[in-house]
Amino acid sequence: MNGLVAVAATFLFANVVLADATIEIRPFERGSWQTIQQAHAGRPTLVHFWGVTCGPCKVELPELGKFVKAHPSVDVVMVDADLVPNTPAAVRTMVSQAGLASAENWAFGDTFAERLRYEIDPKWQGDIPRTLLISRDGSIRTIEGSAKTADLEKWAKEQGADHR
User: Fold this and answer.
1) With 0-12 CB in 10 A as exposed, 13-18 as middle and 19+ as buried, what is 153?
2) CATH number where 94 lies
3) Any bridge partners for residue 131, and if so which?
4) Which of 25, 84, 113, 123 has the most CB atoms lying inside 10 A of its own CB?
């Protein structure tokens, strides 16, 4: 029986790895912030900056996964903003396990991270997690540190976003 369990576990692990490979991780480079803003203009959009090595992010990502599932009309953009570049496989695994595979996923692709952060917010020093809530009118609310689910729910309701 133990052999059967091992085969099943190997099969399950292989399927998770294969599923992760299908998640596109776009390189976040100069101009990416403007691309994201233009692509989501007029739509409520949650942009979350996180990292594979960020402890609070590991707790927060599954909560964001639940939010994504509950609010399909909110665009969700995830950006791995770790100072140390991560492998695409590590990023894919974390977003997949958190239920964020359907989100738009990016990872800092420029080793000069200060320049990328400056394009987003000249005052941002690089702390993560960081969430930007972009309203339909383009106004941005920044949440430094872990976002509280109640705050995200309130914002989604203000945007007229459906809830499942």
Assistant:
1) middle
2) 3.40.30.10
3) 48, 143
4) 25
Structure tokens at 80: 């791995």
Identify which of 116, 112, 115 has the alpha carbon closest to the alpha carbon of residue 47: 116
SS3 56: helix
Q: What is the residue range of 40's domain?
A: 2-158
**Phi and psi at residue 57, to the nearest 5°:** -65, -35
Q: Is residue 86 classed as helix, strand or coil in its secondary structure?
A: coil
d(CA 104, CA 100) in angstroms, rounded, equals: 8
| Count of structural domains, the chain | 1
Does the residue 163 lie in any domain? Answer: no
Span 40-78, pLDDT tens digits: 999 999 999 999 999 999 999 999 999 999 999 999 999
Q: Which residues pair with 28 in a beta bridge?
A: 108
